[in-house]
Amino acid sequence: MTDNTVIPVKPDLAAGSRFDAARRAEMAERAARDPDGFWREEAGRIAWMTTPTRIKNASFEGDVSIKWFEDGVLNASVSCLDKHLAERGDQVAIIWEGDDPNSDSKVTYRELHQRVCRMANALRSLGVKKGDRVTLYLPMIVEAAVAMLACARIGAVHSIVFGGFSPDSLASRIQDCDSTVLITADQGRRGGRTVPLKTNADEALKSCPSVKNVIVVRNTGGDVPMQEGRDHWWHTLSEAAATDCAPEPMNAEDPLFILYTSGSTGKPKGVLHTTGGYMVWASFTHELVFDYRPGEIYWCTADVGWVTGHSYIVYGPLANGATTLMFEGVPNYPDVGRFWQVVDKHKVNIFYTAPTAIRALMREGDAPVRKWSRQSLRVLGSVGEPINPEAWLWYYRVVGDERCPIVDTWWQTETGGILISPLPGAVDLKPGSATLPLPGVQPALVDGDGKLLEGATEGNLVILDSWPGQMRTVYKDHERFIQTYFSTFPGKYFSGDGARRDADGYYWITGRVDDVLNVSGHRMGTAEIESALVAHPKVAEAAVVGMPHELKGQGIYCYVTLKSGEEPSDALKKELVAWVRREIGPIASPDAIQWAPSLPKTRSGKIMRRILRKIAANETDSLGDTSTLADPTVVEDLISNRAG
Ligand code: PRX
User: Fold this and answer.
1) What spatial distance separates the first Cα and last Cα of the chain, rounded to whole Å?
2) Is residue 508 part of a domain?
3) What is the CATH number of the domain that holds 547?
4) Shortest-distance Cα residue to atom 7 of ligand 1
5) How many CB atoms lie within 10 A of CB 235?
6) Helix (H, G, I), strand (E, B) or coil at 639
7) pLDDT at 606
8) ipTM over 0.90
9) Are 576 and 536 in contact (CB under 8 A)?
10) Are residues 226 and 145 in the same domain?
11) Is residue 306 part of a domain?
12) What is the structure's pLDDT at 4?
């Protein structure tokens, strides 16, 4: 595969799209020349109670202040619900497809509006007010979207914690933002198994005194204890509540949600998104990138616990009046044809998933795909990690029958929505490239010193100026926000990713250049896994790095030094894997553990991760300079005892 493999835009697609190459070029030019004028117009895609007159007010210098539409007043739930009632109240808003292929349901915009209003009233009746934080720990059920929108309706700030996180991880996220309410379910379902959400929540809440009320969805009907005075059934609260609820007027810069994400140091940070800019960005990008057309069925396979679920299952599609599909299950249950069975069943037009799923399905061969017609598919998307050209081409040829363009969308929790991606009717594709920035986005590459690099080159990916969907701060820690994103290259937003730009100006994301891992599209910090390991009574020290992994993209490779007197054994390895899963969650399952009598350190005591990464990747003939090590013989030992 070379940079020269180009798949041109299909003429019929360009002809039918609102966003062809000429329109895209015109938008990009106008957004660059007159950002205020451009975004004033785009702001019209959502519903305002007071139309903003001040549009952009952002600086990446000094204290870093980012404001968009700052005198506008709105409520996000109105754009997702009320706005559609007159025109498409009876259109399906959410198709829910259960883990069990025999269970599904449909919710119209009118029904969703009522369900959201009921839950919003219920939250108010529990004393929840504008600005209060509500944590959601839910499976992929309609109630997750209802809970998000109900919070938005009354101005409460939701913080969703992915259902695969452990009680400890849930507790620390509740404590950080002092949530007063937790919304969860008795159990979740995934791949034919149940997930003990309420049990985990009870465990977490032992160390969360701020939580006064717990709302529990009866989902599986599993037997769970309810604590008198604290725990309430969702259905009981909902049934008692009225079906209309006045939306709280929110300033454009009032918070909409917090979402915790991993960085290279310390605890996960609370990424804060506000209301106006985020909603405009979610709507704008969902329409452009997927070339969304009214009436189409759109399916993003992410979980609402991640930012992709926020922007591209709930807020973006609903703001655009789309029919969005929510899937409770997994790609390989009851069999590896599940995705395509669901595509045919619900006549899905736009399908958005992660490279890790594509790679896993590719390994199963073409037959489970070909068994289904997939004729409804029009656009395919990819998100979460770099997609290797081989997987891209399989997705294109086998899943999309060479008919559907693939939008490889690059973005992050911090960016709120997609920043770099092809538009189906406008941008020629290159397998493995996220291609070009969206209108209004100014990416650039810089070298290690922050010098801007021109032309075809490789470097650190930065964004030069603000876009409406950008995060505004780290919750309760603006200094960390400045330090993390604006101090490495002052005056620029640093993504933490590296990228290459080819002669056509196309971006090829190469992956993180910091200590953040991307395991099956799940983001985690090496520091978090290390602190979980050293919390084990037998572990003295640990260093964690990523290693190449065929299916997961990256695997977790751990170097562990035991306390003196402790004996290494396979049983202890298993125990440590289970320990990390219990501390953080099953998504952080170590793939390899190597006993390290000592770790390679500089004379000042800094662990040389570069060398550890090379050993983990089995690239030991290119270790680079080891002369600064305090004790170079440590490396020999690690190489000869590599965990195969
Ligand atoms: O390394 C990039 C990778 O995922 C990181 C962001 O992770 P998260 O905040 O969890 O958001 C994931 C969903 C947007 C990025 O720093 N990443 C995301 N999309 C791509 C990608 N890497 C390459 N190509 C992509 N399309």
Assistant:
1) 29
2) no
3) 3.30.300.30
4) 412
5) 12
6) helix
7) 87
8) yes
9) yes
10) yes
11) yes
12) 75
Q: What is the DSSP letter of 434?
A: -
Q: How far is the CA of 433 from the centre of ligand 1 (A)?
A: 13
Q: Does residue 410 have its Cβ closer than 6 Å to ligand 1?
A: yes
Sheet strands (E) in 514-588: 516-519, 522-525, 539-549, 553-562
Query: 299 with 440, same domain?
Result: yes
Q: Is 92 helix (H, G, I), strand (E, B) or coil?
A: strand
Q: What gap in Å lies between CA 320 and CA 84, rounded to an integer?
A: 9
d(CA 394, CA 492): 37
Q: How many domains does the chain have?
A: 2
485, 523, 524, 528: which to mutate for ligand 1, most atoms within 8 A of CB? 523
Maximal C-alpha separation, the chain: 74
| 3-class state of residue 558 by DSSP | strand
In the chain, the amino acid numbered 328 is E
DSSP type of residue 420: B
Tokens of 317: 């599609």
What distance lies between CA 100 and its chain's CA centroid?
Answer: 25
Q: Is the domain of 231 the same as that of 289?
A: yes
Tell whether 488 and 546 lie within a shared domain. Answer: no
Q: Which residues contact 229 (CB under 8 A, 6 or more apart)?
A: none
Residue 514, in any domain of the structure: no
Distance 141 CA to ligand 1 centre (A): 25
Q: What is the pLDDT of residues 272-314, one digit of tens each?
A: 999 999 999 999 999 999 999 999 999 999 999 999 999 999 9
d(CA 238, CA 242): 8
On whether the CB atoms of residues 273 and 471 are closer than 8 A, the answer is yes
Q: Which domain holds residue 186?
A: 11-500
State the amino acid at position 508 in one-letter form.
Answer: W
Contact, 119 vs 244, CB < 8 A?
no
Residue 109 and residue 37 share a domain: yes
Task: Compute how many other C-beta atoms are within 10 angstroms of the C-beta atom of residue 621.
Answer: 6
